[in-house]
Fold this protein.
Amino acid sequence: MFRLKIALSFVLLISLLVGTTYFTIHSQLGNTLRSDAAISLQRASLIAEQSSRLDEFSLLEKARFVAARPELNQAMTAEYEGDAEYERHMAVHRWLERDQIAFTDIKPEQDRNLDRSLMQRAPLHQELFTAIDASGYGVATLGKDLLSWFGDNVAKQHPIILDVMNKGEARTDVWLWSYNPNEAKQLYIVAIAPIRTSPNAPVLGVVVLGNAINNGVAQASKARMGDATATPISNNQRATDLAPELAIFHGENIYGSTFNPTQQRELADLLLKDHAQHAARGANTPVAIELDGKPYDALVRYFSNNSDPEIPAGFILLSNTGAVQNPLATAKSNILTVAAIVLVAGIALFFFFFYQFTRPLMKIESGINEIITGNKDYEFAVQTGNEYAAGLSHALNQMSAFLQGKSLDEDSNPAGWDELMPEAATSLEERKHAAPTIKGVAMPSSMAPAQAEPAEPARPAEPQPTTTEEDVS
């Protein structure tokens, strides 16, 4: 029972230490990591929004550059012989193609996209490169097998073109665009710049340049955010895991993301059904969701250049809180593993050393049983390595010798038996030969000294007659 109590106390102390450490890490470090992840997500969303704005400004600058070229102005207003519309189409197409080649073949002096000028900023190739006349009809566009698009009324699909012509100011917008009505429309970020020879001249049309939004764009944006957090001494894989996921939406549909199609539909159902709720929550307030069984914190940001407020467009940044808390989960697992090892090893070592300590005492106990059973000549072996057992063995040997009337060793101290000596024995010589008085537990009958028969009581002496001098005389 004594051993069990010590073992249980050891287990309880280890459990208390592990529990305190575990819950401290879970409650304090866990909350800290979640808070830091939310702050990092807010900063990442701000960086992503600023990068998107910079891309829009770069696209707008390119559209203005193309629209201001004298060659394009001349091609839009020149008089052509024969099929004038087709000839104008070919002339405008030629100048548009030259400008696209110039943008694509420009060799940036800076490696970082952030350090480049607006004209050299990536993406260099614009998927939508179109010229539209003053009536809103398409004149020319770059792309393969797009001649069937020639002459379509683009302003009917996107009235913002007429607004740019009327105000004479370049703008950016979000378009769902497809050259073929039978094809699914793709999302574009577009820049619309008026074509005119001078700021006060009449508008001859507009130039529309657009960057497509798709899964490749989202993946590239995530890679840039992952590279931005990586350092030469850090773990690039960890930086990639911590880079937020990205999804770009228009209305209730996602057109580009870092998720698979199934996850895209699930994300759209979770976050894009009620835009008013996100607007009321605020741009810097993340919402906790679970996507494909994984926990995420999501932030919804809206594009400010969308001309149709009834169909909002923007992007969603999602931070995988499970990946963020992976070090915490690893720390918890390590703590539990180490605690289990310490507990098992501690119990094993406790019983080992406890056995080493109690084995000499068990031998002493066995020797006492030998004496009780009648082996009065039993001699206790002096134990080594345990001073308590050694002292007890030596004392028991002296007591056994004393009780049997044997001579003690010269080094023994008879005065150490004071408590066993009769109270009448006062001198050292009397203590050596006096029979001990055993108090407490009765000695076994086999070891008890033989009792002498009681002597008859002494008779009182008869009085002797006294003689006097008279009797003598």
Remarks:
- Residues 54 and 118 are 8 Å apart (CA to CA).
